[in-house]
């Protein structure tokens, strides 16, 4: 098992992205795939029940809720947060294009360029 094999039908003629074979649901979604985490056949490491990192191979998690079972775009909490809108207060005499500037960036000193000396 390795590269160059279709994890769905076991063919070496094509990859899984081009596979049109139908698989028995009892065998799982990828019957010819070998998990890198537990070493068993039938699933990929991203869906392994023994994988503590879940979908995040390099560590981390969903940026909204911290779960390793879904990406941020699929987070159930994002559906609620999309509807929330932050509205500022309107003060008397304030113009319509008023923007509050909280922190002004400090001016940076220009870097002095040191000439490079090459000795032969």
UniProtKB/TrEMBL annotation:
<keyword id="KW-0862">Zinc</keyword>
<dbReference type="InterPro" id="IPR001878">
    <property type="entry name" value="Znf_CCHC"/>
</dbReference>
<feature type="domain" description="CCHC-type">
    <location>
        <begin position="34"/>
        <end position="50"/>
    </location>
</feature>
<dbReference type="Pfam" id="PF00098">
    <property type="entry name" value="zf-CCHC"/>
</dbReference>
<keyword id="KW-0479">Metal-binding</keyword>
<dbReference type="GO" id="GO:0005730">
    <property type="term" value="C:nucleolus"/>
</dbReference>
<dbReference type="InterPro" id="IPR042246">
    <property type="entry name" value="ZCCHC9"/>
</dbReference>
<keyword id="KW-0677">Repeat</keyword>
<keyword id="KW-0863">Zinc-finger</keyword>
<dbReference type="InterPro" id="IPR036875">
    <property type="entry name" value="Znf_CCHC_sf"/>
</dbReference>
<dbReference type="GO" id="GO:0008270">
    <property type="term" value="F:zinc ion binding"/>
</dbReference>
<protein>
    <submittedName>
        <fullName>Zinc finger CCHC domain-containing protein 9</fullName>
    </submittedName>
</protein>
<dbReference type="GO" id="GO:0003676">
    <property type="term" value="F:nucleic acid binding"/>
</dbReference>
